[in-house]
Amino acid sequence: MGATRCTGARLPGLNQPAEPIAGRNPPAWYLGLSSVGSLFTKVADTYGKDGGTMPNVTDPPRPGPPAAPAGAVPLLVVGAHMAGFPAHGRISRHGAAPLGRVRTAPGYRLHDLGGDPPRPGLVRDPAVTTSATGELWLLPRPAITELLLETSPPLGFGWVDLDDGRRVLGYLCEAAATTGRPLVPDGDWRRRLPAPLR
């Protein structure tokens, strides 16, 4: 007996209705088509509502933040090392290249440590929702070692999370050193103390 034509399902893009393969069980073949149809229905429901569009697998991936050149390290500075401030020469002499102003993720406090010249201290504190503004500079890897050796307590280097999801190396302060020191409410040292060399 010849194969019975299944009129309940059609393959996408074909004008002829689907037929069971000889020697196969027609109900099972029909069930497979129903499952495929359900899959296409779910995808269409997901991407077709509210003007949604189907993803195009040929589209190139969206570019992320540019990667640092080999041998270079982005360094976050939030105070005296920023452009126009007294300690900026410590990084500019290494050929530091500006990467722009950035903001930390929530969970950081910026305190005025005083001194002459005044300098701030950035502290990671998961208990707060405040953040701080700083500048990102690209430095040769050997310069990072030199800067670290020049840094004295309560400042040091540590990993800092930015609000765009990146984690970069930056100047951090020991929490104990900020006890009793004024908080910079908006986390922006440049607003609190305009750069004296500008």
Task: Summarize, please.
The protein has 198 residues and is of the alpha+beta class. It has four helices and seven strands, in the order αβαββββαββα.
Description of the structure:
By secondary structure, this protein is of the alpha+beta class. The protein has two domains: 19-59; 72-192, Hypothetical upf0131 protein ytfp (Roll), CATH 3.10.490. It contains four helices and seven strands, in the order αβαββββαββα. It has helices at 26-48, 89-92, 141-150, 189-192; strands at residues 72-77, 97-103, 108-112, 120-124, 133-140, 155-161, 167-173. The longest helix has 23 residues, at 26-48. The termini are far apart.
Beta-strand content bin: 15-25%
Task: Please identify the structural class as seen in this structure.
Answer: alpha+beta
Weakly predicted, low-confidence segments? 3-18, 26-44, 46-59
CATH topology of the largest domain: the name is Hypothetical upf0131 protein ytfp
Mean pLDDT: 78
**Overall tally of domains:** 2
**CATH architecture descriptor text of the largest domain:** Roll
By DSSP, the count of extended strands is 7
Largest sheet: 5 strands, mixed
Helix content: 10-25%
Write the CATH homologous superfamily of the largest domain: Gamma-glutamyl cyclotransferase-like
Give the CA-CA distance, first to last residue: 93 Å
Question: What sort of overall outline do the alpha carbons produce when their principal axes are compared?
Answer: globular
| SSE succession | HEHEEEEHEEH
Figure out the total of helices. Answer: 4
Give the oligomeric state of the chains in this entry, treating copies of one chain as homo and distinct chains as hetero.
single chain
Radius of gyration: 30 Å
CATH level 1 name of the largest domain:
Alpha Beta
Looking across the biggest beta sheet, what order are the strands in? 2-5-1-7-6
